[in-house]
Every structure is written in structure tokens, then in C-alpha cells.
Specification:
The chain is of the alpha+beta class and 265 residues long. It is 39% helix and 17% strand. It contains 10 helices and 8 strands. Strand 1, helix 4 and strand 2 form a beta-alpha-beta unit. The radius of gyration is 18 Å and the shape is globular. It starts with a helix and ends in a 16-residue tail after the last strand.
Length: 265
């Protein structure tokens, strides 16, 4: 075997981990496979597939930070697809699973972000404007990893006066630093690396560290006082309705998303 052939074999082997189904990225689920196949239609290239999948997850799965659950079953891609609502991590998981289902290598990326545009209710509930362990998807397209954030659906963006993120399969699609009015929107603080599957324990530890309300919830679940399957903020509000009513806050200046020189763990 030539050196070039050996290198190509190694490259294919390295991609296998990002194509295989996992406990959370259950790309072998019939529902996920059907969703992915019906979304891509007759397009042939991985880039075209990724673009169609991005927009489907972005807009067909409603973003709601109140739909937060620590139950492993609720974080599976197939469960997110069935519920049609989720926060950033489940939506990233679904995009990763749909991509793998049609042969596009994918993985999950995580970062801490400062959210300068949120409803007053959510800001008060979280006790901070830092969103720990924000999740996005990385897709391997045309020989490179490209970041894609399918978090905010178009209708939510319109309510917040923020342009929805577009994705062309070549450039990273990460949160805008500013909203349409020039106010700060998102500031990336720390990049936590990428993973072939959801590192649930790391995510839970990060949430416990940053959010006292979630720490109390986790402790109650561990003592058997609350149902682990229930959404943490099930009775706390309707995020898109709050945004529609103008219950939002914004302040200050923004910052660029993390590149290769961003702060890492």
C-alpha cells in the first residue's frame, strides 16, 4: 500500500466515529432516517444535504430554553424530533443525527456564551446572562469542519429583531454579535471542544456550576424528590410568546465568536 493510500484509509477510519450512531445521536432511528431522507430530497452533494438539514432543524424544531430536561431519553435525537421543541443542545444533537443518517460526518461543539438578548423572565430565572455549555453542530464538508448553529427558529428571530442565521456549508454559522438594531446579541466566552456524542455528565456539571436553580433541581432529582423526566422549567413561561410581547432586554457591545485562538478548556 502506498503512503497516500494509507493516509486515505486513516482519514476514512478517523471519520467513522463521526458517522456511527451513538446513545444520543441515534442516527439509526427510523424516525431520524425518514426525517433526513425526506428533507434532503434528491440533492446529491454532502454540502447540499447539510444546508437542507440545517434549515429544517432550525425552523421546524421550535427553540425553547424552558424545555430543559436532564433525562437521557429526552435528549436523544429521535425524542427531540418527536417533541418538535428543544433548547440549543437537543437541536444540535438532531442536526448531527440527521447528517449522519445521510452519510455526512458530524460532531457536537460546546461553548459558554453571554446572551445579551433574552426575556426578563428567563434572565431572572437563570440569574445570569451567561449560557453555559451552549451546543452547536460541526459538519465535515468538502474536507473541512464547519460549525452550524440551528438554535433559533426564524419566527423567534423576527420577534427579537435578530437576523436568523444562514448556512452555506462553507462558512461557520455562529451567533451574531449584534442584533438588527446594533445592540449586543451574543458574545462567545469559552470553547469547550468537540465530541462524537453528548458529554452529558460534563453538561450537567457545567449547569450545576453556573445556575443555582438547576443545582437545586439536580439535588432534588438525586434525592428522589422530583421526576428526572420532567422539564426543569415546564411551568416557567413560553419563550416565544414572551418575545412576541416585547419582554426582552439588550445592552452594550458585542464580541466575535470563537476562532482557533479562542479560549479553550
Amino acid at each position: 500500500m502506498s503512503r497516500d493510500s494509507a493516509r486515505e484509509t486513516d482519514d476514512r477510519d478517523a471519520m467513522e466515529i463521526y458517522l456511527a450512531p451513538t446513545p444520543f445521536i441515534d442516527s439509526d432511528s427510523p424516525a431520524v432516517r425518514l426525517f433526513a431522507a425526506s428533507t434532503i430530497g434528491a440533492v446529491a452533494t454532502d454540502r447540499e444535504k447539510a444546508i437542507r438539514l440545517f434549515y429544517a432543524v432550525r425552523d421546524e424544531i421550535r427553540y425553547d430554553p424552558y424545555a430543559l430536561s436532564f433525562a437521557p431519553e429526552a435528549l436523544k435525537a429521535s425524542a427531540v424530533l418527536a417533541k418538535r421543541v428543544g433548547f440549543c443542545v437537543p437541536k444540535a444533537i438532531l442536526l448531527a443525527a440527521a447528517a449522519r443518517a445521510v452519510g455526512v460526518p458530524s460532531r457536537l461543539g460546546f461553548a459558554d456564551v453571554r446572551n445579551h438578548l433574552a426575556t426578563a423572565r428567563l434572565r431572572a430565572l437563570m440569574g445570569t446572562d451567561v449560557f453555559a455549555f451552549h451546543g452547536f453542530t460541526e459538519l465535515h464538508l468538502e474536507g473541512a469542519w464547519v460549525k452550524a448553529t440551528p438554535t433559533f427558529n426564524r419566527s423567534l428571530c423576527e420577534r427579537f429583531n435578530v437576523p436568523p442565521l444562514d448556512f452555506d456549508g462553507r462558512r461557520d454559522a455562529l451567533f451574531h454579535a449584534f442584533d438588527a438594531a446594533g445592540n449586543r446579541h451574543m458574545e462567545y466566552l469559552r470553547y469547550h471542544g468537540h465530541y462524537a456524542d453528548l458529554p452529558l455528565e460534563k453538561m450537567v456539571c457545567a449547569f450545576r456550576e453556573h445556575y443555582s436553580v438547576l443545582a437545586a433541581r439536580l439535588d432534588a432529582v438525586s434525592r428522589g424528590e422530583e421526576d428526572a423526566q420532567a422539564d426543569v422549567f415546564a411551568r416557567s413561561g413560553d419563550f416565544e410568546k414572551e418575545a412576541s410581547e416585547g419582554d426582552a432586554e439588550a445592552s452594550g457591545r458585542g464580541a466575535e465568536p470563537p476562532g482557533d485562538d479562542a479560549k479553550h478548556d
